[in-house]
Design brief:
Number of strands: 12
Number of helices: 0
Shape: globular
Helix content: under 10%
Low-confidence stretches: none
Oligomer: single chain
Radius of gyration: 18 Å
Mean pLDDT: 87
Length: 175
């Protein structure tokens, strides 16, 4: 969700868009080599964007890693929000696996407790297709890879409700 203001009456939101470190993983060795602990040989890219916008990666399909530092002034629960990661995302906070999401065009969010100080968020995006992929490989659009929409986090305090679900039954006089 794109916020127009850094703070609203409910909570402080921090925009994580902008410069991130980036490294492609064509040989799929990043997880084995623990790239979430640091991206040696990485380059700076702007998030949100798609790696296929770069000419040398125009037809790249596979895994790539993103990393960025952020700061918290006090220890608290944090709501991380991603507008879209193409197509599968695995996320680490401070070298600890935190969350996974599948679905290129869907927003997702998760909550983590984070201590005060400087922290690192790492995202492995995977645009690989197989027989179970959705959408399938052959569509009438190009399936890009990358962090394609906004990334932010909100500082939570007290009780936070992320979703709700209502079930109702109409009374007989309303049927």
């Amino acid at each position: 969700m794109k916020r127009l203001f850094e703070q609203h009456k409910v909570r402080k939101t921090v925009d994580l868009n902008g410069n991130w470190q980036f490294k492609i993983d064509p040989d799929n060795v990043g997880e084995k080599e623990c790239w979430w602990t640091g991206l040696n040989g990485s380059e700076a890219v702007i998030v949100p964007s798609c790696w296929n916008n770069e000419l040398r990666l125009l037809n790249y399909e596979g895994k790539a890693w993103y990393q960025k530092e952020f700061e918290l002034d006090k220890s608290q629960f944090v709501l991380f929000e991603f507008g879209s990661v193409m197509t599968k995302a695995d996320i680490w906070i401070d070298n600890e696996w935190a969350f996974e999401h599948y679905g290129a065009f869907t927003e997702f969010k998760f909550i983590r407790f984070v201590e005060a100080g400087t922290h690192t968020i790492t995202v492995r995006a995977d645009s690989t297709f197989d027989a179970q992929s959705f959408p399938q490989r052959y569509t009438d659009w190009f399936n890009y890879g990358g962090i394609a929409r906004d990334v932010s986090f909100s500082k939570l305090s007290g009780i936070s409700i992320l979703t709700n679900h209502m079930v109702y039954t109409l009374s007989d006089d309303l049927k």
